[in-house]
What does this fold into?
Amino acid sequence: MITITHYLILSAILFTLGVVGVLIRRNAIIIFMCIELMLNAVNLSFVAFAHYLNSMQGQLFVFFTMTVAAAEAAVGLAIIVAVFRNKETVNIDDINIMKW
Amino acid sequence: MEVYLFYIVATITVVSGVYLIFEKNPVFGALYLIQTMVSIAVLYILLEAQFVAAVQIIVYAGAIMVLFLFVIMLLNLDIKEEAKNALPFQRIPAILMGIALFTVIGIVIKSKLMQGKHDQYTTAYVNSMGNTKLIGNLLFTEYLLPFEITSILLFVAAIGAIMLAKRKL
Amino acid sequence: MLNLVALILLFPLIGAAFNGTIGKRLRKENVGYIACGAIGLSFFVSLLVFCGLLLLPPEERLFEKQLFCWIESGSFKSVVGLQVDPLSTLMILVVTGVGFLIHIYSIGYMHHDKGYHRYFCYLNLFTFSMLLLVLSNNFLLMFIGWEAVGLCSYLLIGFWFEKKSASNAAKKAFVVNRVGDFGFALGIMLIFLTFHTIDFTEVLSAASHGNFEAGSFTITIITLLLFMGATGKSAQIPLYTWLPDAMEGPTPVSALIHAATMVTAGVYMIVRCNALYMLSPFTMIVVAGIGAVTALFAASIGLVQNDIKRVLAYSTISQLGYMFLACGVGAFTAGVFHLMTHAFFKALLFLGSGSVIHALSGEQDMRKMGGLRHHIPTTYKTFLVGTVAIAGIPPFAGFFSKDEILLESLVRGNFIYWSIGALAAFFTAFYMFRLLFMTFHGESRLDHHAAEHLHESPRNMTLPLTVLAGLSFFGGFLGIPGASAINHFLSPVLGGHGHTEIPGAASGGHHGAWLPYLMMVVSTAIALGGIFLAYHMYIKKPALPKKLAERFSLIYKLLLNKYYVDEIYDALFVHPTKKISAQILWKLVDVKMIDGSVNGIARLVRGFGNVLRLLQTGYIRNYAFYIVLGCIFIIVFAVFGK
It folds into this structure.
C-alpha cells in the first residue's frame, strides 16, 4: 500500500535535488529549472495531502502555484535575456556586483 | 499494480531530477526537467487529481518548458557557459547540506507532525461529480477572488516581461 | 483694558518678523513706518493698560494674564503669563515710550545704512524681549527675556560687524554677560528648590509672610546669585567692562539698550524681588556697596575720557550704581524713580551725542569738536537740558531722583554711602559739563572735512530730542518729596518698605524736618561746584587741564586707561582661558580624547567590517547557501526546539 509518507519522501527528495542544483550550478537557466523542480516537489506534496485528507484545497492551491510559476518563468527569463544582452553571459558567478 | 507503478514512476522522477542537476548541456537539462514533470503528472493521476495532471502537462511541460527551450535557443548557450567557477569549494558542502536538509525534512515527515483535517471530498464523492467540474465550481464560487487576482498577476507579469526583455522602450 | 496686555508684546514681535523676513524688499520708508508703528501701537496699548490700572483701587492693582502652560514636569510648572502691576506698567511705559522716540530718531540716523531693515528688525525684537522681561510673571520667563535682550544687545553692538572692533565688542558683551547669567540661572534653580515654584507672586508672598527668617543662608545665596546676574546685565563692578565697548553699536542703540532700558533690567529685577532682598541684610550691604563703589569708580573714569560716547557710557555705569545704592539701602522707590528719570535724560544725552556725531560725519573724539552751539542749536539746547538734568540742578528730573537717593542713603544707610554718592555726584556734574563745554563751547577744533559737512540733524531726529528734553525737565515732578506720585503708585508692589516717609512729615525719625531741605541745598551746591570747576578748567583757562594732567600724570594715566581693569581681566581670565583652551581643551581633550575616541570607534567598526565583509562575497550562490543553512536551523528549531 502506498501511503502519504511515500509521496512526501519523494517530494522531499525532489525538493532537496532542486536545492542542491541551485547551490552547485552556475548557469542561470539551469538554476531556474531547479527552482521549477522545487515548486513541482511542493505541488506534489499538496496533491498528496489533498488526496489523503479527502480535500480539494490542495489541488486548487497547485493551480495557483502553477500560475505563479508561469508568471515567475516569464519575468525570470526576461531578466536573464536582459542580463545576457548586457553582459554576454548567463554565468551567475560573472554577475557578482552584489558586492561593488 | 498501483504500488509497482508508483515505484517505477518515482524512480524515473528522481533519476531525471539527478540528471538535471548534473547535466552540462542546458538543452538536455530542460528535457530531463520535462521528463520529471511528466512523471509527476502520472503521480497526480495516481492520486486521482486528473485535472491537475492535465494542467501539469499542458502548462508546465508544454508552455513553461517551451519558454525555457526558446530562451536557450535564443541565447545560443552551450557548455562553456559555466567556465568560471568562483566557488569551487562550495560543491561538497552544498551536497552535504542537501543531505542534511533531506534528513531534517524526513524526520519531520516521520514524526507525523503535520496532521490535516479530513474533508468531505471522498473519492466516491469526487467521482460522482467529476474532478474537473468540482474544481471549476470551487474556483468560480469560493475561490473567485484569488482566481481573479491571479489574472492580474499574469497580466502584470506579461507587462514586466515585455519591459525587461525589450531593447528599447 | 488690562486684557490687552498681550498686544503690547505682540506688536513689536510682528514688526520684527515682518522686517526680518520681507523687510529687504520693502522701501526704506515703509520699513521705518512698520517698526515705529509697531512700537507706537505698543506704547498706545501700554497707556491703555496704565489707565486701566489707575481705575482700580490701589490694593487691587495686580493683574495676571496666563497665556498658556509651557512646561509641566513633576512639581515643576512654568506658565507663560504676563503680570501687570504698577512696577511693570511703569517699566513698559518707559520702554515703549522711550523706545518709540528712539525708533523715530533712528529713521533719520540710520537713513544711509544698508542694513536698514536688519537694524529695525533687531530693534523691534529687542523691544519685544525687554517687554517680555518686565511683564513676565515668573522667573523662567523673565530669564528668557533676560537672555533675549542679551542676544539683541549682541546683535546690535555688532551691527557693523565688518568692523573688527564692533564684532569684538559684541563678543565681549556676550561673554561677560554669560558670567552674570550663569549666576542668575543658578539663582532661579535655587529658588525652585527652596520655594518649589518660580512664580513671582507665590515666591514673594512666601518670602514676605515670614516663612523664612531674616538673614537666612539660602535666601542670602539666592539673592547674591540673582545680584550676580544683575551686575552682568546692569554693568556693575566687576562685570561692567562690556558697556563702554558696547558703544561700538549705532548711537540710538546705545541710547535705547545701553542707557535707557536693558541695563536697568538688573535694577528692575531687584526691585521686583524686593521681598527676597529685604530678608537678607548681608546682600543688601553688598548691593549698596557695589552700587556706591561703581558709581564713584565709573564717574572717576569718566572724568578724563575723550570719546563722547564713552563718557556717556561711564556716566551710565555710574548712574546705575546710584540705582543699586538706592536698592541696597532699601529705597526701592528711589531706585525706580532714578531709573525712569535716567531713562529720559540719558536717552536724550545719547541721542544728542548721536546728533553731534551725525553732524560731524562720524567724529566721536571731543578733542576735535568745540564751538558747535551755533551750528546745531536744537541739539545744543536739548543737550544742555539733559546735562543740567544729570548734574542735578533743580528743578530738572535728575535733581529729584538723585537727591532722593542721596537722602535715603544717609537716612537708611550711613554717612559713607552718602559721601561716596556725593563725591560721585560732584564728578558727574564736572564731567558732564566738561563734555558740554568741550563739544559745544570754546573754539572750533574741527577737521576741515567735518567742518564742511556740518549740518543740523533732520526733523525726525530733533523732534525726539525735544520731547525727551521736555520729559527730562518735567519728569522729576512725579517724585517731589512729600507729594511723590511715583511713590504712591508703586507702594502696592513694594509693600511698606519701599520708601521712607520724610522724617518729620509723618513718622518722624531721629533726624529733624530740616534734613531733606538741607540735603537739597547741599546736593545743589555740589552740582554747582562741579559745574563751576568744569567752567573754570575748560572755558576760562583751557590750558589748565593739560597742566594738571602733567602734574598728576600717574593718576591721569590710571584714569585714562580705566584703571587698567581690561588689562587685568585679560591677564587674569582671558589669557589663562585661552591658554587652557588651546593647550588642554583643544590639544588634549578635543584632539586626543574626543577625536581619538571617535576615530577609535570608527576604526573598531571598520575592523569588524573588514572581517565581516569576507562573508559578503557578492556571489548569489553563496547567499543562497546561507539561506538554506538558515532554513535548516529554523526547521530544527521549530521542530526540536520545544
User: Anything to note?
Assistant: Strands of chain C lie at 63-73, 76-84.
